[in-house]
From TrEMBL:
Membrane-spanning residues: 16-38, 58-75, 100-120, 140-160, 195-217, 247-270, 282-300
Function in brief: Gustducin-coupled receptor implicated in the perception of bitter compounds in the oral cavity and the gastrointestinal tract. Signals through PLCB2 and the calcium-regulated cation channel TRPM5.
Domain of life the protein comes from: Eukaryota
Organism expressing this protein natively: Sarcophilus harrisii
Protein name in UniProt: Taste receptor type 2
Family in the record: Belongs to the G-protein coupled receptor T2R family.
């Protein structure tokens, strides 16, 4: 698969440049603030109590990885738009991509494991395998997270050996009126891309979908049982279940959209600075931000801390 990208000064219009810089930038900054809040809240609890639950530990790791990912996405997006010729130099391009891919893989794995952990701990299934996993998941989780980091590293490092993209810095002169115009070629090895890149993000996708589906089924089943017991539609427990179902459904929606955007963006099937590429960048920046905001408002401890922080800010502003 070969994509031809024209990196002349007139390659991108000013409105598109501003949109591509500003919208993902705002999303990344918002996401870093949200993830910084999650990380700070759990770190303070860890320092005070000298211990942290497994779910909060995964949240801390996920938040830290997302802060790094969104910071790197913002830097790469800015550099690729403002310094396009330098960005497409072989060493620079590989440096940006290998870090982006490692952080992306890790982020997807951590989010999937968080969803799997919630599913195993919350979902009400009596299958022996499920019960065995519930008993052992807490002890297994540190090893699973370390294994995910190792797998992410193994799947991202091949880009340094031109496994995914080759001839990144190759150019040919193209006559253009009275001047010579360079067109840069980015060639993607389709077989290696499909085997390594797609597999690396497809496995956590399947895990996330499977765990989210099981959790939704379990919550809906429990909600129906409460309705059949005539507990009333305004019962707080039932409303909490419905909020959880909506939140998990939206998590799933964001995860799948992010998956599609990643595939299109990394496969070089879209021309640089096209509307499709801009949308992919916006979606990739929106996913960790949206997911983190939902995690804050669906987690009782984080929600209470956020409200307390808002109250304190309002009080100090009045003073």
């Amino acid at each position: 698969m070969t994509k031809v990208t024209d990196y002349t000064d007139n390659d991108i219009s000013e409105p598109v440049l501003l949109i591509t810089l500003i919208v993902p930038g705002i999303e990344c900054i918002t996401g870093m603030i949200g993830n910084g809040f999650i990380l700070t809240t759990n770190t303070i609890e860890w320092l005070q109590n000298k211990r942290l639950s497994t779910s909060d530990s995964i949240l801390m790791i996920l938040s830290c990885s997302r802060i790094l990912l969104q910071f790197w996405m913002m830097v790469e997006n800015t550099y690729s738009l403002l310094f396009r010729l330098s960005y497409n130099q072989n060493v620079v391009y590989k440096t940006f991509k290998v870090n982006f891919m490692f952080l992306t893989y890790s982020n997807l794995w951590f989010a999937a494991w968080l969803n799997v952990f919630y599913c195993i701990k919350i979902a009400n299934f009596t299958h022996p395998l499920f019960l065995k996993l519930r008993w052992r998941i807490t002890g297994l989780m540190p090893w699973l997270l370390c294994l995910s980091v190792f797998a992410s590293l193994c799947c991202s490092l091949p880009i340094l050996k031109d496994v995914y993209n080759v001839y990144v810095n190759t150019s040919i002169p193209v006559p253009s009126l009275n001047a010579t115009e360079n067109k840069y070629f980015t060639e993607t090895n389709v077989v290696n891309f499909a085997l390594i890149y797609n597999l690396a993000i497809f496995i956590p996708l399947i895990m996330f979908i499977f765990a989210a589906t099981l959790l939704i089924i379990s919550l809906k089943r429990h909600t129906l049982q409460m309705k059949n017991n005539a507990m009333g539609s305004r019962n707080p427990s039932m409303e909490a279940h419905m909020r959880a179902i909506k939140a998990i459904s939206f998590f799933l929606f964001l995860y799948i959209f992010n998956f599609v955007a990643l595939i299109l963006y990394m496969a070089n099937v879209l021309s640089a600075n096209s509307l499709g590429t801009v949308l992919c960048k916006i979606i990739m920046a929106a996913y960790p931000t949206g997911h983190s905001i939902l995690l804050i408002f669906s987690n009782l401890k984080l929600r209470r801390t956020w409200k307390k922080l808002q109250h304190n800010l309002k009080f100090h502003m009045k003073v």
